[in-house]
Write a structure and sequence with these properties.
two-stranded antiparallel ribbon; four-stranded mixed sheet; elongated; alpha+beta; single chain
């Protein structure tokens, strides 16, 4: 014939590569029946879910969360916003190391001291110990008399009106001040639950260098930046 007949050759597919995962797959036992769980009423126990979204939180938790949201959304005046600018971690660590050396005596230590004085027959108290001063009225009086060398203010005092004026007073009296995180952390220094402010009036000779370093750092970050801080608004995001 004038045309050549074309013969079609059927191509067989290539053998698939060896798959270890498929070959190791266990075949189900036909004797064991698969039972899917029924989570309807009266059925199987419900799986554990994250229910924090639906928890009725205590009132203080709700209040602090609402307060945080309001501080983000509303325009916060500079006098309140300055309490968000806290001391950096390294300087705060050095500060609390120094404060730890000048903790006031506990009630038990005072009791033992008075007992030993009574036993020995002493009537004079002796030299005043060098300790950290606390209490809002006490610290305010020390600042006004220019006896405080360094004032430490907590950032989370509630109501904030208790300490909102303290940075302005410290600057007016030319006393170094700083704002640190945690009224509870300040409270630990003076054996209380919380403390709004602390003041360092004097230190021993071996700690004067450490105090001077802290004072110079704090003065640069707070006292000298006071004009900038009082113009910086917060919130409004």
């Amino acid at each position: 014939q004038w045309y050549q007949r074309r013969v079609r050759v059927k191509k067989t597919p290539a053998a698939p590569a060896y798959n270890a995962a498929k070959s190791s797959k266990k075949t189900s036992n036909p004797l064991i029946e698969k039972r899917s769980k029924n989570f309807s009423i009266g059925g199987d126990i419900q799986p554990k879910r994250d229910l924090r979204r639906f928890v009725r939180w205590p009132k203080y938790v709700r209040l602090q969360r609402q307060k945080k949201t309001l501080y983000q959304r509303l325009k916060v005046p500079p006098s309140v916003n300055q309490f968000t600018q806290t001391l950096d971690k390294q300087t705060a660590t050095n500060l609390f190391k120094l404060l730890k050396k000048y903790k006031p005596e506990t009630a038990a230590e005072k009791k033992d001291r008075l007992k030993s004085m009574a036993d020995s027959g002493k009537t004079e108290a002796g030299k005043k110990p060098t300790v950290v001063k606390f209490g809002l009225n006490h610290v305010t009086a020390l600042v006004e008399k220019k006896k405080a060398q360094l004032v430490i203010i907590a950032h989370d005092v509630d109501p904030i009106e208790l300490v909102v004026w303290m940075p302005a007073l410290c600057r007016k009296m030319n006393i170094p001040y700083c704002i640190v995180k945690g009224k509870a952390r300040l409270g630990q220094v003076v054996h209380k639950k919380t403390a709004a402010v602390l003041a360092v009036t004097s230190v021993k000779a071996e700690d004067k260098n450490a105090l001077n370093n802290l004072v110079s750092s704090v003065t640069t970050n707070y006292n000298e930046r006071f004009d900038e801080i009082r113009r910086t608004w917060g919130g409004g995001k």
